Amino acid sequence: MQTRKVAIIGDGAVGSSIAYTLMLGHAVNEIAIVDVNKNKAEGDALDMADGMSFLSVPKIIYAGDYEACKDSHIIIITAGAAQKVGETRLDLLNKNASIFTSIITSIKPYIEEDTIVLVVSNPVDILTYFTYKKLGIPANRVIGSGTVLDTSRLKTAISEDTHIDPRSVHTFVVGEHGDSEVAVWSSTSVGGLSLIDYCSKCGKCKGRNMQRLHELHDKVKNAAYQIIEKKGATFYAVALAVSRIVSAILNDENSVLTVSSYLESEFDGSLKDVYMSLPCVVNSKGLSKILRPNYSEEEKEAIITSGLALKEKLKDLPL
Question: Is the domain 148-314 a CATH 3.90.110.10 member?
Answer without folding.
Answer: yes
